[in-house]
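Onboarding guide, step 5: your first structure request.
Type a short instruction followed by the sequence, for example:

Predict the 3D structure of this protein.
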Amino acid sequence: MPSTTAKAALFDALASVAQALGSGRRAEIVDVLDQGERSVEELAAEIAQSVANTSQHLRVLSRAGLVRSRRAGNRVFYRLADDGVGELWAAVRAVATRRVAEVGVLADEYLGERGGMEAVSAEELEERLARGEVVLLDVRPEPEFRAGHIAGARSAPLPALDELAGGLPRRRAIVAYCRGPYCVFADDAVRMLRARGLNARRLDVGYPEWRRAGWPVEAVT
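The system replies with structure tokens like these:
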């Protein structure tokens, strides 16, 4: 007969992955790292935590095998262990969206009113990019753009967008994208651009979803 102790230990080991994601801040870290490699200091700024607290969260994720690190001089950089971690996070997020009623309420509070904000599908965007009909803006922080972005996109981090908007063509469609379904950057960008009279829409997925679907991507080398 199989050992019940061994079975319990096995399932405890399997559950350690879920336990590692059992913190909103660690989930945020995984969401950011799904965009590409970042330093501890950059991650701390993104999740509004101290470097010490962020390092502690990263140790938990590392022990669960979800992230890997490398050292460059005095800085330590982290990345997701593999694509499966990003897929796991996407699955957790999707289940929570469907099953946890509070998620929808909280998302509306965070993202604001999306009722009149028409989205562009990945399929439509790819067709329009091929025809040269659209200006595509990556409104994530510049390090994420450098790590990887949709092919043909321009880097337009949200803090710099107001200044950049003056040089955007007024007669072409503009599409903004960011990290994913619960990233507010693209929504804020579309609101800002529309207020300036530009024809702006947001992409209905983020960079990680586009990449995992096999659509064209590139990086700054």
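Each response can be followed by summary notes, for example: The beta strands are 38-39, 67-72, 75-80, 119-120, 134-138, 149-150, 154-155, 173-177, 200-203, 217-218.
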